[in-house]
Amino acid sequence: MPVNFTFEDIENDPIFKKFVVKKKGRSVGTLKNYVFTLKLFCSFIGKSPTELHDIHREDLRNRAAEFDMRLTEYLDDYVSYLIEEQEYTYLTIKANIGRILSFLHAFKLRPTPEIEIPKKRF
């Protein structure tokens, strides 16, 4: 069930705070983009950044195949939502997915799923 996280919820999340430390030296605008992206994604999946981190970490520890990773399903559903309901462009979606994956990569949570983003809408 979707949750409406606030910007403050994301900024005060313990794992997001660690992420900010790891990204020290990034511009304020870049960090705001991460907050905005994670707010939307976390609200969509109903999980905080810490929960997202822990879920993907657990899947990696359990050696889940990419198609069995919960993150794969979350991202696939999110891309569909961004296309169908938000009418985001390919480049905007790609940037958003890139920020979500970058958040997880900062904690060495690899691999992450490769998400297909259609370039054209039919």
Provide structural commentary.
The protein is mainly α and 122 residues long. It has one domain. 62% of the residues lie in helices and 0% in strands. The protein has six helices and no strands. It is globular. It starts with 6 loop residues before the first helix and ends in a 17-residue tail after the last helix. The model has no long low-confidence stretch (mean pLDDT 93).
Layout of secondary structure:
Blueprint: H1 7-11, H2 14-22, H3 28-45, H4 49-61, H5 70-84, H6 90-105
Helix pairs in contact: 3-6
- Give me the count of strands: 0
List segments where confidence is low: pLDDT < 50 over at least 5 consecutive residues: none
Helix content: 55-70%
Please tell me the overall pLDDT: 93
Strand content: under 5%
Give me some keywords for this one:
122 residues; mainly alpha; 6 helices; globular
Summarize the entry for a quick read.
This protein is mainly alpha-helical. It has helices at 7-11, 14-22, 28-45, 49-61, 70-84, 90-105. It has one domain (7-105).
